[in-house]
Amino acid sequence: MKSLIIANWKMNPSIKKEAEQLFKDVFRVIKKTKTVDVLIAAPFVWWPFLKKAKLCAQNCFWEEKGPYTGEISPKMIKDLGVEYVIIGHSERRNKFGETDEMINKKIKAALSAELIPILCVGEKKGEDAEEVIGRQLREDLDGIENCKSGIENLIIAYEPVWAIGTGDFCESCDAEKVLNFIKSKYNNQIIYGGSVNGENSKGYIDVGFNGLLPGGASLKADEFIKIIENVQN
After folding, report:
1. Domains and CATH numbers, the chain
2. Which residues contact 51 (CB under 8 A, 6 or more apart)?
């Protein structure tokens, strides 16, 4: 199985010229990778000029169509040839009020559209990781065995909330404990995110994660290339 690296650009870059340059800089390395699959989770407005990339949506709604101004359906994403979608990112949970019930509906909708959901789970500072993640997995994945496309097509991303965008990354040995906890419940691809950079990236792969979900580092071409090369080696 190839390692999976997903560049989460979030709401960046702010202008097309910058987005084009960033992709141009990293694609020269992406196209040469043999042992790593690289996805670009770019804002959907930049998708038209990223046709050479494997794309990943940053979010989706749970309805196929209807009066939902500003939302994007899984069917729309699939129809554009995109195969992956991030669901339940902590920023969606904390800044936009997404509940586990909403995330559960989104996962079911994504699987029904034959997309591959990347479910983000993780604890805040001071919380018990196993207690929080156990609840998230239980509620977010409730009933998905009845979906057209089953749980085997789901990817789980462990992202400790306290590490996202702070530079205070989770040591690989501590992340491994959470990895083993998730594995005890689900035998899926499991990736790590949370202040991933060129220096710490390989450590997460070495302890058993199947890939990475860098955010800020994916906006710096040199840093993101370093992550790819370290994982590839």
Report:
1. 3-63+72-232 (3.20.20.70)
2. none
List residues with catalytic annotation.
89, 159
* Predicted TM-score of the model (pTM): 0.95
3-class state of residue 41 by DSSP: strand
Burial 16-54 (b: 16+ CB within 10 A, else e): eeebeebbeebbebbeebeebebbbbbebebbeebeebb
Nearest to 218 by CA among 204, 194, 197, 202: 197
Give 52-100 pLDDT, tens digit per residue: 999 999 999 999 999 999 999 999 999 999 999 999 999 999 999 999 9
Q: ∠ CA 21-72-154 to the nearest 5 degrees?
A: 85
How many CB atoms within 10 Å of residue 134? 16
pLDDT in tens, 199-227: 999 999 999 999 999 999 999 999 999 99
